[in-house]
Amino acid sequence: MKTRMKKVALIILCLLVTACATAKNQHDPLEGYNRGVDQFNTILDKVTLKPTAQGYGRITPGPIRTMVSNFFDNSTYMNVVLNDFLQGKGKQGSADFGRFLLNTTLGVGGLFDPATSVGLIKHDEDLGQTLAVWGVGQGGYVVYPLFGPNSYRDTPDFVTSTLSDVLFWVSLSAAPAITIPLTILKAIDKRYRLIGAANLRDDMALDPYVFTREAWRQHRKYLIFDGRMGTSTKKKDDWANDDWEDSTP
Fold it and tell me: How open is the CA angle 223-229-235, to the nearest 5 degrees?
């Protein structure tokens, strides 16, 4: 049921965003560059990550895929904890730190998720959301080679998410024979999780670039407001204003 609702939502979003695909968007000042990078990423994905992720899904049992996803989610979870506290969410930060410790120990390095079963739910916080809390505007939309959609405000999260990633510190001392396969597996796992949404975009969107940009914007808006759209909050999202709508000069 949830999967069906997500597909319906994506279809509606697709119809909305493709209606204005040819209009100039003032929050996408690098559109020419972004489209070129997006095309490069798409071609690279079609010849490498997508078929690899599809093969991974076919040959890897579901429980194993879940453990892999749990492991990588846990290895990066200290970024969530850090930004909990930077946003002033002391109670949530403490709970998320407990979640990390429990999954790292009883969860065998994060392969399993006992924290959820005891009520320590998973959150999603990053530096982009933290900067929004403290009033920093979104800035322009930008697409990075290999990494995909981003924005000026969200870009610094590359630094904090890397420095808070357990595997980054492991890679400083571990042999490449360990770190390189883990890095590749992490990319494959991430791509596999996006297969359904990416396929729907390719099948439905008249302009995949605009569809991706708008879907990314809506997702960021959802995260910034903690899923409480339309409620009062000190978080700032200037893309949520009416002036986000495509405009002409």
Answer: 60
